[in-house]
Design brief:
By secondary structure, this protein is α/β, with parallel strands linked by helices. It contains twelve helices and five strands. Helix content is 59%, strand content 11%.
Length: 258
């Protein structure tokens, strides 16, 4: 039989999906009942799935998401103002296909960053390129790029990303340079790509944070008018986890004392 040479060739050609399914068929009696076409279809499907998983893994690596968050792991039991129907609608990524934006606001610790990263994770799995930045780091990168003569190239790179996640938006007032940078980024992306903002401040206060009224109008017009909005509320989930851990520890201590 030509089994071993075939396996070696699949390894040499780096056809890991085909190799995995072919080996499974060789080791399984059920495969004997399949036609050649059925077995070959399964082998090619295995390679297709393997390649898509590899591409998704690569997209997730390049996205540099702050947290390993998944839509499937989101806890809807907490009273945070998070509507399951709205999130399921966003999870299908139609808004990214339509080049719309998303805004997530709420107090510290309610899960804005986690939710943003979960949507970014889903976008990666659906085939979209994603890039995560804390806003302060984005400005640092643009300032560095300007200093070394790569500013335009960096803007072009940002403009090509299907979904740009900007976290910790509005934590401090912007400088003149940062306002101009933000306008350039939003202008390049308007109606061409999607942007997700995670912020403590509600959108109605963003004019004050941006500073210059004219640029603020121009930036927010490109960002808000076609954006889905999620407003989270409630106590910090970090605080709740600390309280739960303390309660568990106290419960364990009382049990031991008894």
């Amino acid at each position: 039989m030509l089994v071993h040479p075939t396996l070696d060739k699949l390894r040499t050609l780096k056809l890991a999906g085909m190799l995995r399914v072919y080996q499974s068929q060789l080791e399984s009696a059920w495969a004997d009942d399949l036609t050649f076409d059925e077995r070959f279809a399964m082998i090619t499907d295995g390679e297709s799935i393997e390649r898509e998983n590899s591409r998704a893994k690569n997209r997730l690596s390049k996205a540099k998401l702050r947290q390993p968050a998944c839509i499937e792991d989101i806890d809807f039991r907490q009273s945070r103002g998070l509507d399951k129907a709205t999130l399921c609608s966003l999870a299908d990524c139609q808004w990214i296909r339509q080049h719309h934006n998303c805004i997530i606001t709420g107090p510290t610790g309610v899960g804005k960053s986690y939710l943003a990263c979960a949507l970014g994770n889903k976008a990666c799995r659906e085939g979209y390129s994603v890039l995560y930045f804390r806003v302060s780091r984005l400005f640092q990168e643009l300032a560095t790029a300007r200093g070394i003569g790569r500013y335009d190239q960096t803007l072009r790179s940002l403009a090509r990303v299907d979904l740009l996640l900007l976290d910790d938006w509005g934590t401090s007032c912007l400088t003149d340079e940062q306002r101009r940078d933000l306008f350039e980024v939003m202008e390049d992306r308007y109606d061409r790509r999607s942007t997700l903002i995670a912020a403590q401040l509600p959108a109605k206060h963003w004019h004050q944070t941006i500073g210059d009224p004219t640029l603020a109008d121009a930036i927010l017009d490109r960002l808000i008018h076609n954006a889905y909005t999620i407003t989270l509320k409630g106590e910090s989930m970090r605080k709740k986890r600390t309280t739960d851990l303390t309660a568990d520890a106290e419960s364990g201590k009382n049990t031991n004392d008894n």
